[in-house]
Amino acid sequence: MTATDERERHGATGGGRRPMEGLLVVGLEQAVAAPIATRHLADMGARVVKVENPRGGDFARHYDKALNGMAAHFVWCNRGKESLALNWTDPRGAEALERLLSRADVLIQNLAPGAASRRGLAAEQVTARHPRLVAVDISGYGEGGPLSHKRAYDLLVQSEGGSCAITGEPGRPAKAGIPLVDLATGMYALTSVLAALYARRETGRGSAIAVSLFDVVTEWMGYPLNFTMGTGVEQEPAGVGSPAVAPYGAYPTADGQTVVLGTTNDGEWQRLARQVLGRPDLADDPAYAGNADRVRERTQLDAVISAWSKSLTLARAQEILDEAGLGNARLNSVQEVLDHPHLVARDRWQDVATPTGTVRALLPPPIAAEWSPPMGAVPALGEHTDAVLAELGYSADEIVALRADKVV
Predict the structure, then answer these.
(1) Cα(177)–Cα(175) distance, rounded to whole angstroms?
(2) What is the 3-state secondary structure of 290-353?
(3) How far is CA 69 from CA 50, 79, 178, 325, 354, in A?
(4) What is the reported pLDDT for 2?
(5) Mean pLDDT of the chain
(6) Which residues is 259 bridged to in the sheet?
(7) In angstroms, rounded to a whole number, what is the distance separating the alpha carbons of residues 387 and 395?
(8) Contact indicator for 88, 51 with CB cutoff of 8 Å
(9) Confidence at residue 16, expressed as pLDDT on a 0 to 100 scale
(10) Spacing of C-alpha 154 from chain mean position
(11) CA atoms of 190 and 185, how far apart (whole Å)
């Protein structure tokens, strides 16, 4: 079976009705957390109207000009959406937004602390006016706590929530390279919307949902929190490795590459020691019998594995590890991922239109047999303003007047 055959079998190029078709999603959104959630809804077929400030729009549009003159974050998180440039702080803009919400199925917002509630756009407020609406408030710290008033960006919440302390090297904390908490929060918003829409089929009512970045990162800190709660010990970060498991890490090879390998149970450790390292003495040594023992002796084990890996090319090391049935990978750079043969063989890249030309984008991770993602265009700021306003009942003269007054 060819790669194209596989894509067709799984629906990656097929037609079919997408599961969210017919639903209208409104995004009062910026940066990553809310936009990534609404983009996935667009990938599932929903119509997404992104409401942006006419003066510059989503500030993520201006982070850089890395991709054909557009910001890399913005292109990633905003394909397949319509852009409505609307000053909803103006009463006339607020009226237009209210007309849009009266038709919407979903509202997701991640405005600055207090901004939505001051305008009657917080989830509980808007669902009181529109009972079938599923509304999600994404905030930094949630309501009712001493940090609720603070702005929250991914780095700040990773720091506040402890994830930076368990990343990096001992004494050198680090932020995860991707906006981990933004993305995780967006996924919780997405799954909550899907659950609420499912419930609405029975109840006829929407839901008011709140998701905070801080609650998300502390939830995802489950293992280290439980470990320290139970032992009183704060584990040190392990770089490209894990404080929970050993051996598990990155090791240099003879050709200047890095092989990443790991064991997750005692059986794998036995195969590593006997079949790969040729060290039955280590396999039989009670000092390494259990995972907790091996974690304690991590430094010694890493030295043994590094000596082995340095004697081999990456290809040969991976061949040996594969033969032993042990997990392994190559430590790739960003450019090497762009050119990754596994992505090419599975046709994971697809062209997407933007205001400045076509760019490549990865298909979304879910592969469904019945439908494929639309992979719609990235919108220019306000590109769909006139069309959306006309749909909401505004005449051509009214739209001209709103433009003249900079409401749109």
Answers:
(1) 6
(2) CHHHHHHCHHHHHHHHHHHHCCCCHHHHHHHHHHCCCCEEECCCHHHHHCCHHHHHCCCEEEEE
(3) 21, 16, 22, 46, 10
(4) 36
(5) 94
(6) 251, 330
(7) 11
(8) yes
(9) 78
(10) 12
(11) 9
pTM of the shown model = 0.91
User: For residue 184, what pLDDT band results from cuts at 50, 70 and 90?
Assistant: very high
d(CA 185, CA 177): 16
CA distances from 63 to 66, 69, 191, 194, 275 (A): 9, 11, 28, 30, 50
How far is it, in rounded angstroms, from Cα 349 to Cα 346?
Answer: 9
CB 48 within 8 A of CB 81: yes
Contact between residue 184 and residue 32 where contact means Cβ atoms under 8 Å apart:
no
Residue that the structure tokens 């749109």 belong to: 408
Q: Is 248 left (phi over 0), alpha (psi -120 to 50) or beta?
A: beta
Tokens of 55: 């003066």
pLDDT tens digit sequence for 271-287: 999 999 999 999 999 99
Over residues 300-308, the mean pLDDT reads 97
Statement: residue 318 has pLDDT above 60:
yes
23-58 residue pLDDT tens: 999 999 999 999 999 999 999 999 999 999 999 999
What is the length of the chain? 408
Q: Are strands 258-262 and 328-330 parallel, antiparallel or unpaired?
A: antiparallel
